[in-house]
UniProtKB/TrEMBL annotation:
Official protein name in the record: DegT/DnrJ/EryC1/StrS family aminotransferase
Source species: Croceitalea marina
PANTHER family according to UniProt: TRANSAMINASE, UDP-2-ACETAMIDO-2-DEOXY-3-OXO-D-GLUCURONATE AMINOTRANSFERASE
Cross-referenced CDD domains: AHBA_syn
Family statement drawn from the similarity comment of this UniProt entry: Belongs to the DegT/DnrJ/EryC1 family.
Classification via InterPro entries: DegT/StrS_aminotransferase, PyrdxlP-dep_Trfase, PyrdxlP-dep_Trfase_major, PyrdxlP-dep_Trfase_small
Organism domain of life: Bacteria
Length: 385
């Protein structure tokens, strides 16, 4: 059996090696390292793929989120609601801009932000909601857009884990994740579903004015060379990363289908297991089917409900099966983000998830033998007395 890896970027590289190597060597010959033709071409290709009017590439997914908030003109003291159960980058940029983060609980089955919890957290100071499409499945965007409209709030989608997923609305229509709110951010960190070979990120929006504002912000607040109209940042995608992304973008749907296929096999194997809860796909699809594009499985995350999660992690690590706990500590309990206004009872779901979740190896190169080995080992261990 091939050695099991949490992500297998080396195996994936073999399939795009010729294109990546020749594009990179062309860049080295041309010296167009920043904002070269590869970046422009990638931007256009991603706009076409997402069916969105504007893609603004930038340096990473954390910058992308920060720039979204700067572009919307959010001001210190404005409250921004986001999920307690996500990667820290989401709350970090809110705090960094001296906005007020308001963390709220998530749903126990999808791990995505709870609509009830958002509604309860809205105050006259609330200016924006940041849903995170956690582990590759969209948050409940119907309800979030309704709430935003009712309360006149911005919606910033953190799409770092969801690129390529579609959200199916109640009326049956579908839209790509990251094209539903007012603006969205994504990350091209190597292990993301569309990852480059370094750092990278992008912002998406259909709003022409906001896109214009953001194009200046990413470039030192310049709209005309050496005229700095607003305080900006320096956040660029370099040409070499754009070349890698151009090689991968045409394969993104097939990469995501491979992830879904692995997820389906995992879930089949864990069916009827008393102590193992498989991830739930919602959004128009009852099971995990091949044709459904509602979940792109950035992570495949189980809940182990009999208290053996930590022991299982140890057991897998001792037996050549990498795994991860995303995320082990609720954001509201992190030193940097504690706030006396938080009431522990309001985070009951996140507090339980951090004890139960385990993410299994998930990438485009997993084979049946590996999946069989992983699932058998987990089932045996979890049921052992
Ligand atoms: C990866 C990630 C980010 C940050 O992306 P970087 O490119 O690493 O800065 C933000 N939010 C979520 C949910 C992520 O998973």
């Amino acid at each position: 059996m091939k050695k099991i890896q949490m992500v297998d970027l080396g195996g994936q590289y073999q399939g795009i090696k010729d294109q990546v190597n020749s594009s990179i060597s062309n860049i080295l010959e041309s010296s167009a390292f920043i904002n070269g033709p590869e970046v422009q071409a990638f931007q256009k290709e991603l706009e076409d793929y997402l069916e969105v009017k504007h893609v603004i590439p930038c340096a990473n997914g954390t910058d992308a989120l920060q720039i979204c908030m700067m572009g919307l003109g959010l001001k210190p003291g404005d409250e921004v609601i986001t999920a307690d159960f996500t990667f820290a980058a989401t709350v970090e940029v809110i705090a960094l801009l001296q906005l007020t983060p308001v963390l709220v609980d998530v749903e126990p089955d999808t791990f995505n932000i709870s609509i009830d919890a958002i509604e309860k957290a809205i105050t006259p100071k609330t200016k924006a909601i940041v849903p995170v499409h956690l582990f590759g499945q969209c948050a409940d965007m119907d309800a979030i857009m309704d709430l935003a409209k009712k309360h006149n709030l911005f919606v910033i989608e953190d799409n770092a884990q969801g690129i390529g997923a579609k959200h199916r609305f109640k009326d049956g229509t579908k839209k790509m994740s990251g094209t539903i709110g007012h603006v969205a951010s994504t990350s091209f960190f190597p292990s993301k579903n569309l990852g480059c070979y370094g750092d990278g990120g992008a912002i998406f929006t259909n709003d022409d004015d906001l896109a214009h504002t953001i194009r200046g912000i990413v470039n030192h607040g310049m709209y005309k060379r050496y005229h700095h109209d607003v305080v900006g940042v320096n956040s660029r995608l370099d040409s070499i990363q754009a070349a890698v992304l151009r090689a991968k973008l045409p394969k993104l749907n097939s990469y995501n289908a491979k992830r879904r296929n692995a997820a389906r096999k995992y879930s089949e194997a864990f069916k009827n297991q008393e102590h193992i809860v498989v991830p739930k796909t919602v959004n128009g699809c009852d099971g995990i089917c091949d044709t459904c594009d509602c979940h792109v499985f950035h992570q495949y995350t189980l809940k182990i409900t009999n208290g053996k999660r930590d022991a299982l992690v140890q057991h897998l690590n001792n037996n050549g099966v990498p795994c991860g706990v995303y995320y082990p500590i609720p954001l509201h309990s992190q030193k940097a983000y504690v706030d006396e206004r938080y009431i522990e009872a309001n985070f009951a779901v996140t507090n339980q998830l951090v004890e139960e979740v385990i993410s299994l190896p998930m990438h485009t190169e997993l084979d049946d033998e590996q999946i069989g080995y992983i699932t058998a080992m987990i089932i045996e261990f979890v049921n052992k007395q």
